[in-house]
UniProtKB/TrEMBL annotation:
This is Quinolinate synthase. It comes from Massilia yuzhufengensis. The lineage of its organism: Bacteria, Pseudomonadati, Pseudomonadota, Betaproteobacteria, Burkholderiales. Pathway: Cofactor biosynthesis; NAD(+) biosynthesis; quinolinate from iminoaspartate: step 1/1. Catalyzes the condensation of iminoaspartate with dihydroxyacetone phosphate to form quinolinate. It is found in: Cytoplasm. It catalyses: iminosuccinate + dihydroxyacetone phosphate = quinolinate + phosphate + 2 H2O + H(+).
Length: 319
C-alpha cells in the first residue's frame, strides 16, 4: 500500500515535469483510471482517448490501454510523443488480422467497401475505406447499405454479424474475435438471469450472438455506462471486460453490478472477463516510462496519413 502511494506521487510529479497527460481505457486497472481522472487526463473508450489526446495541449500523451490505441493516438497527433507502459500490450482482434492476409482478402473483393473496426493495426486502417468503433459502426454500415454498397468487414465476426442482422447489409466478414468477449456464454447467462429476474443485461457487441440476443442494451463501453446510469433498475448483469465495473460503480452508486458468466466457471469467476493485455498496464511500468521516455509508439508517416483518412471519415460522419 505504501509502495502504491509512492508510485502514484511519482507519476503525478512526472506527468507535470514532462508536460504529459494520461489517457486510460475503461478496461485498465482502477488505480490508473483514477490517476488519469484526477490529473486532468481522461478515462474513456478508444475513440474518445484518441480525440481527447488530439485536442489536449500536452506534447506527450501516455496511453494506458493496448497497442492499437497508442497507434490511433499517434495517427491523430503525429506531432506528439506517444508513450505506453508496455508496447507488447496488444489485442486478439489486431493479432488475428495481419496486414498481408487482410490486404490480399480486400484485393480479392474490389467491389466491396472496406470497413474496419478500431481494434486493428495502423496498416489495416490504411487499407480501409472507413474505420468505425462499436458505438457508430451500425449507423455507418446502415448509411453505406442505403447507398447500395456491399461491405467487407473486419476483424470482429460477432460485431460484424450483429451489424449485419440489424441493417440487412451485404457484409463479407473476416473471422476474428476478442478473446475476452468470445468467452461469454449464452446458456449460463440465461441461468443467471433466472436468479436475478429484475436485472438488466448490458452487452458489448463483441460477444457471441447467444449473449447479444439476451441483452436489454447492446452497445459500446460508453453506451453501456450510460445505460447503467439511466436505466431504472438496481441490478445489472454486464457482459464486457470487468475493468468497466469501476466506472459503472462510480457513475451509478448504490446500483449492483454482476459479471456475466464466462466459460471459466460461470458466476463464481472473479477474473475471467479481463483482458490480459489491458492488465499489462500498471503503476510501476507507467512510472518507469514517464521517467525514461522509453516505449514510444511509432507509426510510419505515410501509413499514418492513409489510416487517418479512414478515421476522419468516421469523425466527419459523427459530426
Ligand atoms: O473491447 C475493446 O477493446 C473496446 C471496447 C475498445 C474500445 O473501443 O473502447
Ligand atoms: Fe482486444 Fe478484447 Fe482486449 Fe479489447 S478486450 S483489447 S478487443 S482482446
Amino acid at each position: 500500500a505504501a509502495e502504491k502511494v509512492e508510485l502514484k506521487d511519482r507519476i503525478r510529479r512526472l506527468l507535470k515535469e514532462r508536460n504529459a497527460v494520461l489517457v486510460a481505457h475503461y478496461y485498465v486497472d482502477a488505480d490508473l483510471q483514477d490517476l488519469a481522472e484526477e490529473t486532468g487526463g481522461c478515462v474513456s473508450d478508444s475513440l474518445e482517448m484518441a480525440r481527447f489526446g488530439r485536442d489536449h495541449p500536452a506534447q506527450t500523451l501516455v496511453v494506458a490501454g493496448v497497442r492499437f490505441m497508442g497507434e490511433s493516438a499517434k495517427i491523430l497527433s503525429p506531432e506528439k510523443t506517444i508513450l505506453m507502459p508496455d508496447l507488447d500490450a496488444t489485442c486478439s482482434l489486431d493479432l488475428g488480422c495481419p496486414i498481408d492476409e487482410f490486404a490480399a482478402f480486400a484485393d480479392q473483393h474490389p467491389d466491396r467497401t472496406v470497413v474496419v473496426y478500431a481494434n486493428t493495426s495502423a496498416a489495416v486502417k490504411a487499407r480501409a475505406d472507413w474505420m468505425v468503433t462499436s458505438s457508430i459502426g451500425l449507423d455507418i454500415v446502415k448509411h453505406l447499405h442505403e447507398q447500395g454498397k456491399k461491405i467487407l468487414w473486419a476483424p470482429d465476426r460477432h460485431l460484424g454479424a450483429y451489424i449485419q442482422k440489424q441493417t440487412g447489409a451485404d457484409m463479407l466478414l473476416w473471422q476474428g474475435s476478442c478473446l475476452v468477449h468470445d468467452e461469454f456464454k449464452g446458456v449460463e447467462l440465461d441461468l443467471l438471469k433466472a436468479e436475478y429476474p429484475d436485472a438488466k443485461v448490458l452487452v458489448h457487441p463483441e460477444s457471441p450472438a447467444g449473449v447479444v440476443a439476451q441483452a436489454d442494451v447492446v452497445g459500446s463501453t460508453t453506451q453501456l455506462i450510460n445505460a447503467a446510469v439511466n436505466l431504472p433498475a438496481t441490478t445489472f448483469i454486464v457482459a464486457t471486460d470487468n475493468g468497466i465495473l469501476h466506472k459503472m460503480r462510480q457513475a451509478a452508486p448504490g446500483k449492483h453490478f454482476i459479471e456475466a458468466p464466462t466459460a471459466g466457471n460461470s458466476a463464481t469467476c472473479k477474473s475471467c472477463a479481463h483482458c490480459p493485455w489491458m492488465a499489462m498496464n500498471g503503476l510501476k511500468n507507467l512510472a518507469e516510462v514517464l521517467e525514461s521516455g522509453a516505449n514510444e509508439v511509432h507509426v510510419d508517416p505515410e501509413i499514418g496519413r492513409q489510416a487517418k483518412r479512414a478515421i476522419d471519415r468516421m469523425l466527419d460522419f459523427a459530426a
